[in-house]
Amino acid sequence: MIDVLAVASEYYPLIKTGGLADVTGALPAALKPHGIATRTLIPGYPKVMQSLRARETLHDFADLFGGPARLLASGDLIVLDAPHLYGRDGNPYLGPDGKDWPDNWRRFAGLGLAAGELGSGGVARYKPRIVHAHDWQAALAAVYLRFWQGAAKSVLTIHNLAFQGQFPSKIFGELRLPASAFAIDGVEYYGAVGFLKGGLACADAITTVSPTYAAEIATPQQGMGLDGMIRARRASVTGIVNGIDTEIWNPATDQALAERYDTQRLQRRQANKQAIEQRFDLDRDDGPLFCVVSRLTWQKGMDILADTLDSLVAHGARLALLGSGEAWLEQSFAAAAERHHGRIGVIAAYDENLSHLLQGGSDAILIPSRFEPCGLTQLYGLRYGCVPVVAQTGGLADTIIDANDAATSAGVASGLHFAPGDAGALDHAIARAVALYREPKIWAQMQRMGMKMDVSWEKSAARYAALYRRACSDNAGGLFQLIEKRLER
Ligand code: ADP
User: Fold this and answer.
1) Most buried of 129, 133, 398, 472 (most Cβ within 10 A)?
2) What is the dihedral of CA 26, 28, 31, 35, to 10 degrees?
């Protein structure tokens, strides 16, 4: 067994704002058959602390960025109990005013430092061989390991390059890193401190959540200022598509559905469709019902969707939208629901059960993201026979086969693609989906094709396991970095 410490700011079912939690929650079980024993380090938010039953103190920090802290072990979780950093209800990143907590750098430097301590052998009872940091909130783990010369190898996964954790240079002095870490191969980023940038510079291996996104972020157009760094580390960057938990997301057993079904009993989805119509106050008819389950943000292309709603209704379709996020978008969708009463229904909330029902009863799910590192809702859509209509970007491009003529006649289409960032292209895709829906044989074939696809963690877990093994056995990792550095010069 290889001991891997995963480090993340979210973990399903304890704390979730997006796909990151689904990944950190599901990957450990999928890795176990590959000889990987994962424990996951997460911050001790109030909800997490309340859920802990048996707990054992692994380590005490007399002062972790402004207060005492402890590492508590509970099953496969290691919780960083630091009330001065995490003892606040609500969203893990934002205060009640909707803005980032002003001390986020301390909160997530604390997480990274605790992981660095574990990976450097500072905790007698647990010495992981790999520290796997997820996103900027955990990225400093790789920096501490590098500059403290910890024994563990580090892996950094980018779930979304848009979130980088950048802070003014004045915090550097408090990070407990040597002065040499404020440099191009450390946390220095255009004169400031970049947590993700530091992780990218220091990690032994870098992954992101789809091969297409791995290629996209190496370009100036989509590299969000870090494309140079990604290119410099190209030899260490791999794209591994996310899987889903196929037990939690199983239409044959899902208790959140009005009616359960499988590929042989697709007609049972009808009861779920009716339940959605009721919940979203929609007319009943035999036309297609689209759904959206999303953060309401610019990244997700929600403004583009809002601009195409009149046309969606004109195509004879209906929409049930579940989402929360930016106020202007919530208002825009509420206005559309008012304009098109019975055709567009909106619930501005975060509701896990309702998201299952939407996948289990809608005909298609719309995902118009401007960029999408992997995306999970299209995978849930595949699993539930809710045909994904997706922007052709990142993981959406990698996981959905467009219903072009070739794919349809070969019987391998599983959804529809359209060009990202373009209302006209989205509108055209909606029209295509409506037309395909009117051909029940083709539509059902697409549904079944999606439902049969392997969207589990099986293949990707094997890839992560292979990556861990390479990192462990491989001192070539260091060598690669030396070569990369030479090439950079
Ligand atoms: P991201 O992590 O960028 O938000 P993903 O598609 O990777 O996007 O993951 C989103 C996750 O959050 C999915 O599990 C999705 O079902 C869930 N989700 C998003 N918005 C809502 C909502 N309003 N209610 C319930 N679940 C939601």
Assistant:
1) 133
2) -160
Residues 417, 429 contacting (CB under 8 angstroms): yes
Per-residue pLDDT reduced to its tens digit, 351-378:
999 999 999 999 999 999 999 999 999 9
User: Each residue of 341-359: b (16+ CB within 10 Å) or e?
Assistant: eebbbbbbeeeeebbbbbb
Q: From the CA of 457, how far away is ligand 1's center (Å)?
A: 18
Place of tokens 């010069």: 489
Instruction: Provide mean pLDDT across the span 84-113.
Output: 95
Q: What share of the chain is helix, strand, coil (3-state, %, to 5)?
A: 45, 20, 35
Kindly calculate the radius of gyration of the chain based on its CA atoms and give it in whole angstroms. 23
Q: Is 146 helix (H, G, I), strand (E, B) or coil?
A: helix
- Across the range 127-155, mean pLDDT stands at 98
Q: Which of 439, 417, 431 is nearest to 315 (CA)?
A: 431
Q: Which of 169, 173, 46, 166 is nearest to 108 (CA)?
A: 166
What pLDDT is attached to residue 90? 85
Question: Which of 23, 91, 248, 295 has the most ligand 1 atoms within 8 A of CB, as the residue to mutate?
Answer: 295
Ligand 1 in contact with 351 (CB < 6 A)? yes
Task: Please tell me if the CB atom of residue 355 comes closer than 6 angstroms to any atom of ligand 1.
Answer: yes
